[in-house]
Amino acid sequence: MSTRQRAPVLERPDLSPAGPRQLLRDLSPEYAVNGLIGLIFSASGPIAVTLAVGASGGLSDEQIASGVFGIFLSAGLATIFMSLLFRRPFGFAWSIPGTVLLGPSLQHLSFPEVVGAFFTTGVLVMGLGMTGVVRRAMAAIALPMVIVFVLLTAVPALGKRMPPVLGTLLIGLVMVVATG
Questions:
Q1: Cα–Cα distances in Å, from 151 out to 78, 86, 174?
Q2: pLDDT of residue 92
């Protein structure tokens, strides 16, 4: 009989969520500056990509403004909620690669269809994460992928023949197939 304990599907916080007194004690200028830097970063590069993709996709100013509002609101709420729940700093942001993929989608799909696809994908990814499959897959493939990336990066002769990111992807695929 196996004594191995099964990992919970949903990760549970180690501590109970912080109350108002703990939050006030934890506030400091250092954390405020870190938050400001995060805001400045997210309001510069990623939003510039979002604006460019929206304009090239033919979205109206109202649709672009709605998208930007949704990005900041969802990322901000997720950051606050998860940070309070786990009592650790978490940062959630919009995916720049996801935004770049949005452009071609807008060439043949309507804005509501693209938004629906993004929400559906988010729900499916969240569901997949909640099943524990991702945790088991990462436990099986993460170390070999890190080793290959470091090796291809540290040895320039190998890195010239195989880009580190491509090598990492390939070893990840091999590990996924090998572990079933």
A1: 35, 34, 17
A2: 83
